[in-house]
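Lab meeting prep.
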Amino acid sequence: MRIDDLHALIALSQHPSLHATAHTLGVTQSALSKALARLEAQAGATLFERSSQGIAITAMGETLLRHARQVTQAMHDLETELGDERSAKAGLIRLAALPHLVPSFITPLLAEFHLKRPMARFSIRTMLSPQLLIHLEDGLVDLVIAAKPEASHPGLANASLGLLDVCMVARARHPRLTQLRSLGDLVHERWVLPDRGIYLRHWFEQLFARADLPLPPVAVESSHSQLAFTHLLRQSDLLGLVPRQHLSQPEGQGLAALPGVDMAAQYDLHVFWRAKGVLSPVAREFRDALLARGQDAPL
């Protein structure tokens, strides 16, 4: 089986249709269909069921997918080790992180790291924590900065970066700002919130459940970073959730933390890598630099 076809199989498992997968991979749908046809011919079975709603992986497809991930990861590890022998100070570091960490935490570290390792190259992706860990497990990135999940991920190793402080906010000139001092004061306010399934949304809803209060109405929910909605919060009476550090930065200007009790949360950010994967020397050095910065700089 071709290694490119195995990469295509992994991508197909992550998208609802051939069209969406082809767009992500930057290939034509015809080329992707041929790759899938080759795999199904070699497997002697249908790997994906096609319907008007899209594609769905079969049991045989799941079996091949499991091995495809192992093979493509082994190839990546081989290329990494060969590259290590050529140069211990160069190489590509594939990093994925929460969006708000790039300007405030990662970019300053890149500036320092580049002075020591000018030949290092970086590929940086941003997404929210559930997608980050999936990308790492699938071998698409080498290092991930994400909130520590409640569920275990036995194939991943991790180390703590520190606590991220997130607070409930409103625009500084919100007409009821000084009155919003308890959870009971918030139940009739409209909110901008993360999607369900994201840690912050779970924390938010549990606060009201423990207080035996109804959930407030949601005006906007999104899988994007909450920082994407700071302009909306400044221009409306909606409430939202923002990392406290950003209130003193340009994107947080015009916003204020709510003054009441139980209106902030802390969660543990970790650096993750594959426990049995091979990190290049320069990737290991950058991981250690991340951990050192986590001890010295606020998240």
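Slide two material, second protein:
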Amino acid sequence: MRIAIRLLFSALAGFLLALWLQSPVADSRSDVETEGVAPEGIEVAMLRAELEEERMLRKRREVELVWLEIALEELLESGTASEDEADGEQSKAGNASPETLAGDLGLRDDVLSEAGMDGEEIARIRERWERFRLDLLYFQDQNARGERSKSERLRERALMEAELIEDLGEDRYDVLLYASGQNNRIVVTNVLADSEAEWAGIRVGDQVIAYDDMRTWKPRDLKLASRAGEKGELTGIRVWREDHLETLYLERGPLGIEMKPKSLPPLPVP
């Protein structure tokens, strides 16, 4: 009899244990045990993200410093030259001043649609673009009133564009430039003999897309990127050649190329 009772209790205990293991309580306990390990992984991920953010911040500060140096050079060399003339840019709309950009250039919805944007995203892009144009109107008004020096104007204009790029993302900004008729590509027209560009394998007709992972849409962007960082360090440069991207490597510094800005269809998004 005692043996039978023990067997009954053993069977009942096994049955209850099986039910408990299948219950949400057991699952939650398992989750808690897993969560005991997770915070370490989360902490590592957070530290890595913080480190990457600090690196990007340092790179932006370096670029801003170089940008100010270039602005000073242009101020000394060109005197009263306009911001876009300093780039040597000629877009479909001509040498577009901030007032022209703010008042005349609209967006082509067909270009935005071909880039895969739906109606909601097109509306968001258009709203952001119109806000940018309005900011340019105020920017132009302040310039006309002589409230800022030329170096301050150049710096503020660059910061406005940087904010627009950050809001939209680099690929969408590329589409925006083309959809509004502005230059969005740097095309190599000549490669100087024995230059870094020649050694790296850059060819006439290549489109310079990025330098050291910094996207380049205008000649000034490439000048900024090549001057930031340590001179002589090995740096990657991405070019669009015929129908594909290529990454080439050269020493940071003057590339030894002649180039011109152009308005070309956006690159396919991988």
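Talking points for slide two:
Residues 91-182 form one domain.
Residues 1-37, 78-104 have pLDDT under 50 and may be disordered.
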